[in-house]
Amino acid sequence: MTESKKHKKDEEMRPEAVSDQMGSFPAAAENGLETLQKAVDTLTAQSAEYLDSLQRERASFANYKKRVDQDNRLVYENALADIIKAFLPVVDDLERALKNKPADPDCEAWISGVALILQKLMKTLDVKGIAPLNVQPGDDFDPAFQEAVTHEDNPQYSNSQVIEVVQTGYKLKDRVIRPALVRVAK
User: Fold this and answer.
1) What residues contact residue 137 under an 8 Å CB cut-off, 6+ apart?
2) For residue 13, what is the enclosing H or E element?
3) d(Cα 89, Cα 71) in Å, to the nearest integer?
4) CA 172 to chain centre
5) How far apart are CA 97 and CA 93, in angstroms?
6) How many helices (H) and strands (E) are present in the chain, helices listed first?
7) pLDDT average per 10 residues of sequence, the chain (186 residues)
8) How far is 20 from 50, CA to CA, in rounded Å?
9) Can you tell me whether residue 20 is helix, strand or coil?
10) Partners of residue 152 on adjacent β-strands
11) pTM for this structure?
12) Which of 93, 108, 130, 181 could be cross-linked to 167 through a Cys-Cys bond (beta carbons 3.0 to 4.6 Å apart)?
């Protein structure tokens, strides 16, 4: 190194020269720190806004999914109810056949077969959530579950009591798919 270069370097390293250069550093550092703090505050607010938006979208999607699941369940139950309604007359016919069974002892095998078919059909309905409405003579008439075929005088029953169940009603879970047809006392 040449002597002039060495002298110049020594002069730059003197404490007074370093102090002169550092004098402007705190002001620049403070301005930079303020700028960084503003950037951090802006980004923090923006991230909070994004988090809020994300949480709202998640909640909205969860609600949408619940609505779709409920709609699908209702469509399934309506379709099932429509299909079951087509088979209820068969159940009625099998029940009538068993109520009016022949007295001939040679028909016992046939009667047992019809009873077994009805039992299987009722078990299948039960598995699908279909249950007969429990209506007995003497029960109070309830238009939510029963449909009156006739209103007639009957000394055995008081006003608005079921005299006879003409046709069994059925429900799917808590929903009536076919009301019971009944005769009602007046």
Assistant:
1) 157, 161, 162, 163, 164, 165
2) none
3) 29
4) 16
5) 6
6) 4, 6
7) 56 52 61 89 95 96 96 94 93 92 87 94 94 93 94 90 94 93 93
8) 46
9) helix
10) 185
11) 0.66
12) 181
Angle at 120 between CA 112 and CA 93, to 5 degrees: 70
Measured CA to CA, the distance from residue 102 to residue 15 in angstroms comes to 126
Give residue 102's identity as a one-letter amino acid code. Answer: P
Tell me which residue of 73, 52, 71 sits closest to 63, measured CA to CA: 71
Q: What are phi and psi of 172, to 5 degrees?
A: -110, 110
Structure tokens at 123: 């078990």
Sign of CA pseudo-dihedral 88, 90, 93, 99: negative
Confidence (pLDDT) at 2? 58
What does residue 74 show for φ and ψ, rounded to 5 degrees? -65, -40
Residue with tokens 């609600």: 63
